[in-house]
Design a protein that fits this description.
Elements: H1 20-31, H2 41-52, H3 58-72, H4 100-109, H5 116-126, H6 141-148, E1 152-154, E2 162-163, H7 168-186, H8 195-212, H9 215-230, H10 234-244, H11 253-271, E3 276-277, H12 281-295, H13 300-314, E4 323-326, H14 338-350, E5 356-360, H15 366-377, E6 384-387, H16 388-397, H17 402-405, E7 409-411, E8 415-417, E9 422-423, E10 429-432, H18 433-441, H19 466-498, H20 502-506, H21 511-514, E11 525-533, H22 535-551, H23 557-565, H24 572-580, H25 590-607, E12 617-622, H26 628-633, H27 663-671, E13 685-688, H28 697-711, E14 715-720, H29 723-731, E15 740-742, E16 747-749, H30 755-763
Parallel strand pairs: 2-3, 4-5, 5-6, 9-11, 10-11, 11-12, 13-14
Antiparallel strand pairs: 1-10, 6-14, 7-8, 15-16
Helix pairs in contact: 1-13, 2-3, 2-5, 3-8, 4-5, 7-8, 7-11, 9-10, 11-12, 11-13, 12-14, 13-14, 14-15, 15-28, 18-19, 22-25
Length: 769
């Protein structure tokens, strides 16, 4: 493998190919051997520390519990590694979420990693019910009813979905972070009304820093032991690195990577693997690599091996630990650097799912876009794309200074945050907009069971125009939105009584300066993110009602309402007409596209009115995750010709199979949406037949992507696969074991998806032009 020194990427003739060492590490990660899993170890040590801290204030209890985990988790080091440490990937255990204690205790009963004595201790500790979900508010019947009938769902948590200020760990080390806390303590006026609470919180973070200072030393001692036992001097190299980090500032690229990995291990021990991401790695790691290259301490081949090792460490079958490359600098200049390309090269060479996104803007180098398209053409949906030209203005519109807005990064699937500065409460709730329309057409009643869910706004038979329908929809939507905000705000307030996140707070700006945990609103930016589901379905339905009922009179309002109530029983001709003959969003048609744009704008403008308990705003996602399937089951028939129970559209992608005019037409429809108002990110998956990216089509696809950026489309993901291949993968799953697809903000092996999700993906239009 060689690099062209004049270009920050591999030469065309010498792409990154994993060494035998990396190939072995890769295969071990893919096999997910039991040695990589610690079972209930994290849960046991956390519960042990929490119980030992009984009677202490909540900040101290959470910090002491996590500190006990850091000090006692097994030191696991595998032969051939370049980075040390394993977090144990304890996905069956949760300390903080509602019901987590019962779930974790049940998992512990059959855990071979725990002794019988430890299991008995867990039973005794759990009997004290240390983790409870406090009933902060009285029950809200309308909210409960709406949740039960699939109108919305509320999460509202600060858990998961973070990007911490990871760059501070290699830059300062935990000794430097500890010094920041000490400085804040020293500056705290004792007469400050909040001084007792702030002092307690800051002391909790000192406990956490002290525990983190031991992490590298524990691994260094084990490495030296392995060196003595095996005679392999590579262990001594690891020991020297771990002697330095994460306690002290990193001096080299290898030390920075090791510090980053240790920092992420603690994240997993506090808050789990799910959607805790690393952020803009090419920005905060490049100075270390640049210095190593200039000093001759490292060459490109060695740098690629080190980065590949981190990629392997991060591997999960379901992976939303996102890394981001590209984008803009704080002054608006292009941020792409050689490490941006190296991340793409290593991702391609390893050829497995690695959650990697690329930020693009009008000044992105064409070479960078082309390199991204090279990877996209291989299938698997990596990288996926975020548009600075839409997202930065949306963040600025929410009051974030443009210099900090330009440092945004996506979390997990597509959720947006300002790394190390924000508490985004990502996907705080979802609202099922087709269900809101259903209620608007049926006097607030559920079409499936007749229950009165929303306000009585009349039926479709009472409407004399499409404007009447929209007015009823607005009333149902606003009613639902207020319920959703109530639920999200109640969850935030309840979390303050239940737990603290000391490590996330330590790595979030302004928490230390304020002496305030992130759960209490200590972050510089606090907001909740509201997710809209089913905009394409509502747009198609409103277009159908306008044309078929109010313009052409093809069907009366009464007949349409009866067809919806009976799920088109005896009216199949009408359903097919509605589904196939009327304008559909995704085909560059003004009627349906205009409705989609209006609904999205209405959603954003409505949520601008609401505030959070921390004084923050509500940002908007146009995003369904995988909920388009279960929420579709709770949604009745639609005027767009959709049967009751069928899946809703994915995010702002057209409903499955409705986009028939080609990829350019679909992107033109997407461009109609007000992405520059959508501060928490929109999401769209476009399906492309592999032939579209072959030969001269590759350059044309690059042009298409660059044009989409100029059009202001906020976010794009691509599946490059045809339906025949997916059907073959269903018939012969072992033969297509490595076939990966873009699912819903994440990529996964097709064979690991359930049949229902496989069918949903197959039904999406596979564009050839």
């Amino acid at each position: 493998m060689t690099y062209n020194k004049r270009m920050p990427t591999l030469t065309a003739a010498a792409e990154y190919s994993p060494s035998p060492r990396i190939a072995r590490l890769r295969e071990r990660a893919l096999a997910q051997p039991p040695a990589l899993f610690f079972g209930g170890r994290r849960f046991y040590y956390y519960l042990q520390g929490w119980t030992a801290a009984e009677g202490q204030p909540l900040p101290l209890r959470n910090a002491m519990a996590l500190a006990n985990v850091i000090r006692r988790m097994p030191v696991k080091m595998m032969p051939g590694e370049l980075l040390a440490g394993e977090h144990g990937n304890n996905t069956d255990y949760s300390n903080l979420v509602p019901g987590g204690l019962a779930q974790s205790r049940a998992a512990a009963e059959n855990d071979l990693n725990l002794t019988e004595t430890e299991k008995a201790e867990i039973r005794a500790w759990a009997a004290q019910a240390p983790f409870t979900w406090p009933a902060f508010t009285a029950p809200q019947p309308e909210l409960q009813l709406a949740v039960e009938h699939g109108v919305l769902t509320v999460w509202g948590t600060a858990l998961n979905h973070s990007i911490r200020a990871y760059e501070k760990v290699p830059r300062l080390g935990f000794a430097g972070l500890r010094a920041e806390v000490e400085e804040a303590l020293a500056a705290l006026p004792l007469a400050d009304p909040d001084a007792p609470a702030r002092r307690t919180t800051l002391q909790a973070w000192l406990i956490l820093c002290d525990a983190a200072l031991t992490l590298g030393k524990r691994h260094a001692a084990r490495a030296r032991q392995l060196a003595e036992e095996s005679g392999e001097r590579e262990w001594l190299d690891i020991a020297r690195v771990c002697d330095r980090v994460p306690a002290h500032p990193a001096r080299t690229f290898r030390e920075a990577l090791q510090a980053l990995w240790f920092a992420h291990m603690i994240t997993v021990w506090e808050d789990g693997v799910n959607a805790n991401s690393l952020g803009r790695i090419d920005q905060f790691l490049w100075p270390y690599l640049e210095a190593d290259l200039a000093a001759g301490r490292l060459n490109w081949e060695e740098a690629a091996e080190l980065l590949a090792t981190l990629w392997i460490k991060l591997y999960q079958a379901y992976d939303v630990q996102q890394c981001t490359v590209g984008g803009q600098l704080s002054d608006g200049g292009d941020a792409t650097n050689p490490l941006s390309y190296l991340a793409l090269d290593v991702t391609e060479g390893l050829d497995f799912v690695r959650c990697l996104s690329a930020r693009l803007h009008n000044g992105s180098p064409r070479a960078f876009v082309e390199r991204c398209v090279d990877l996209v053409s291989r299938g698997g949906g990596i990288p996926f794309f975020f548009n600075d030209e839409a997202i930065v203005p949306a963040l600025v519109g929410k009051g974030i200074p443009i210099e900090e807005a330009r440092d945004y990064a996506p979390i997990g699937c597509i959720e947006i945050t300002i790394p190390g500065k924000a508490c985004p409460h990502a996907v705080s709730h979802w609202i099922n907009l087709p269900k809101c329309l259903e209620l608007a057409l049926n006097d607030g009643r559920d079409l499936l069971d007749g229950a009165q869910i929303g306000p009585q706004t009349g039926t479709l038979a009472d409407c004399s125009s499409s404007e009447d329908v929209q007015a009823a929809f607005t009333k149902q939507f606003e009613f639902t939105a207020e319920l959703a905000v109530y639920g999200s705000n109640a969850a935030e307030l309840a979390h303050r009584l239940q737990f603290r996140l000391p490590y996330l707070s330590l790595l979030t700006e302004d928490c230390v300066a304020r002496g305030l945990d992130i759960v209490e609103g200590g972050a510089r930016y606090n907001y909740h993110s509201s997710a809209a589901m089913g905009i394409p379905n509502v747009a198609d339905s409103l277009a159908a009602l306008q044309q078929a009922v109010f313009t052409e009179g093809r069907v009366s309002a009464e007949e349409m309402l009866n067809a919806l109530r009976t799920d088109f029983a005896g009216a199949e001709d009408l359903r097919l007409y509605l589904r196939n003959r009327l304008p559909k969003y995704g085909n560059d048609l003004p009627l349906a596209d205009g409705y989609a744009a209006d609904i999205a704008r209405q959603y954003c403008e409505l949520f601008d009115r609401f505030s959070t308990p921390s004084g923050g705003k509500y940002f908007v996602h146009l995003f369904t995750f995988t909920l388009m399937i279960p929420f579709g089951k709770q949604t009745g028939a639609g005027p767009d010709g959709r049967h009751a129970g069928e899946p809703l559209a994915y995010s702002v992608s057209p409903a499955q199979g409705r986009d028939r005019e080609g990829l350019t037409a679909m992107l033109n429809s997407l461009a109609c949406l007000p992405h520059d108002l959508v501060a928490a990110a929109s999401s769209a998956i476009a399906e492309a037949d592999p032939t579209l990216l072959q030969g001269p089509g590759r350059a044309a696809f690059t042009d298409l992507l660059i044009t989409a950026v100029r059009q202001g489309i906020g976010q794009l993901q691509f599946n490059v696969v045809n339906a025949d291949t997916l059907r073959a993968a269903q018939r012969e799953p072992e033969r297509y074991r490595n076939l990966c697809v873009r699912v819903s903000g994440f990529s996964q092996q097709f064979g690991l998806l359930d049949r229902e999700m496989q069918e949903h993906i197959i039904a999406r239009t596979k564009h050839r032009s």
